[in-house]
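User: My collaborator sent over this chain with a note saying "see what the structure looks like." That's all I know about it. Can you take a look?
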Amino acid sequence: MDLCYPHQYIERRSGEIKTEKLLGDRMVRMLYSRIRENASFLFKSLTGSLASDLLACFNYDFPLNHRPEKIQRIIRDLGLNMDEALEPETIRSVRQLFERKITYWTARPMHHSPHQVVSPCDSRMIPGSLDHGATFFIKDKFFDVQDLLGRENQHWITAFEEGHYAIFRLTPDKYHYNHMPVTGTVMDFYGVRGVYHSCNPSAVIEVATPYSKNKRVVTIIDTDVPGGTGAGLVAMIEIVALMIGDIVQQYSDVAYDSPREIRIGETLRKGQPKSLFRPGSSTVVLLFQKNRFTFSPDLLENVARHDVTSRFTKGFGQPLVETDLCVRCDIGKGIKPDAN
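Assistant: Without extra context I'll predict from the sequence alone. Here is the result:
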């Protein structure tokens, strides 16, 4: 399938329909059509860790990418707002630009309603359901739940049956820190090995369940604890992509101070930095238990719109429109068990 038409999304802040400039789109479409179909060995090599690392090195660490004029051109071309950057004077390479910190406490304010769940990243988001009877059930398009969580983790697979999910797609221009979407206690934390598929919409459509094939890190959070969000168990899955070779876990209780690894049994607070994606584009998936979470109405309205040209809509044959939103903004709320 040659998906060469525009890809549009809805900007939540303004409500406007925007057209995304997909970086490297022609190369990605060639890789996931001609090369994938006619040279499978080459395709596997190009979506492996070595090729991903080499591409990242060339694009972000090559000495010519340290030139101030190159950095300024990228800032201009991507429309980055450097006024929100923390210590912008320390940015001296393309990698440092993409791994920049921001004054999120003022640039990404968060409402402190205790049961609200917030976006884990600056991203384009799709809400969905794992319930076959739901109007926004999308069977095995983006991921297979068992593969996503790891088939050996049947207790977690069972916990999220018929629940909800949210997919957050980061693009290269985005702030690449992930923040906690909920407050709760870490029940489990583990990695799952995989490959490095692109997160370009064309690639996602061409490869069945790509998000459960890529390398990823899974964090299971119990929010039914004192001071927690009250949304039951929540799974946060951070997924690598082409040129994303690593997910650095570095949770901070205050700003970006004293970052540390995630530990089972500790309580993490909503809105705080959790991890950093190395530069490029990548994805976060949240899973929620059945009857323990409800999405904000505008996100459900947006995903079903017919007046937006989305490659996901064209590729999957049903309305699937992304909403562009900010890290720490509300995406829905937890539901108490006795409220069902």
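A starting point for your reply to your collaborator: The CA atoms of residues 140 and 209 lie 6 Å apart.
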